[in-house]
Amino acid sequence: MDQEIAVVFDGDGDPEERITVNPVVLALASPVFKSILTQNMAAQKSCVIELRGKDPDEFKVLVSFLMPASSRRQSITEKNVDFLLRWADEYCIEPLREECVAFVRQLPPTVERVLQVRLGPAWPTCTCSSEEADWAYAFGIEDHLEFCVKELVEVGEVDWGSCLKDAELMKILITHFMNFNRDRTKEVKDLRNRLKRGHVHTGGVLQDGHKLECGKCENKVQSVWQCQRCMYSA
Description:
9 helices, single chain
């Protein structure tokens, strides 16, 4: 496997597109590519790998992450993480897959990222269905899925239409909506009760005109009023 091989892709027209690559790089990075190359050699076939239906530009980026000389200069970004994750998962390139997953975990929560965490490498090309959506659990990042949904619910995200086909994801979403509404309802009730008891003040002055000093604010406690600044009941 010392000679370079050709990786063949469907062209936009004729002729088909070919990319030459060192087979050792592919074999060391991916057991799937190694198996393909080994079978080709055993059958005395020409050193060609056909990747019909794949994007040659994505493959070029993938190879740049695998080459010893160029990999150190590459960075996973929001623009390439989705397709790199698909390639790494399909061809069992574990280090790259782990890097992509770690990158996804630190991205700001959006509905699109919720779907990506739910569907994994299948996103965004597949429809969202529960049968395909066990990726988060397979990779142990279900906590990040829950975190993204919780954060989006709390900031008032309402555009969840793309998630409607996934029953399990909708269960997670509904659970967080219910928890959020329950917490807000409890806060409103608590505030109303404090207002009724006169335990809320504005401008540092209580409703009865007395000054407030709070124990948690390192002031001397002179009353049993509620401190609005730190929500501490003296």
